[in-house]
Amino acid sequence: MIRPVLTELALFLAPFCAYALFLWVTKEHVFERESWPPKRLATLAIAALVLMLGSFIVLSHFSGAPPGSTYEPAHMEDGQFVPGRTR
């Protein structure tokens, strides 16, 4: 569960990190308030949300069980634990 959360967090922070890197490379003052105007922050936030939405769509289409499969819950079989799976 932690991997998907960290993936989404990384995708959200990516535009802000890229902009901070751009400021650093161009010798601007990264930590000054004037380098982070509200309009620029809004643009970065929108880009971050678009990245997250895109990753949600990609994950929903290309992960999980194939269509038409059935889930077999975890159970005990001959004294052995059999984990849940899809068939």
What does this structure look like?
With 87 residues, this protein is mainly α. The chain has a domain at 1-58. It has two helices and four strands, in the order ααββββ. The strands form two sheets. The chain has a two-stranded antiparallel ribbon. A two-stranded antiparallel sheet has the order 2-3.
Please supply descriptive tags for the structure shown above.
single chain; 87 residues; mainly alpha; two-stranded antiparallel ribbon; 2 helices; 56% helix
The helix content is 55-70%
Low-confidence stretches: none
Strand order of the largest sheet: 1-4
Oligomer: single chain
Order of helices and strands: HHEEEE
Q: How is the main sheet built?
A: 2 strands, antiparallel
Query: In terms of structural class, how would the helical and strand content be classed?
Result: mainly alpha
Sequence-ordered SSE layout with sheet pairings:
Blueprint: H1 2-25, H2 38-62, E1 71-72, E2 75-77, E3 80-82, E4 85-86
In short:
With 87 residues, the protein is mainly α. The protein is built from 2 helices and 4 strands, in the order H-H-E-E-E-E.
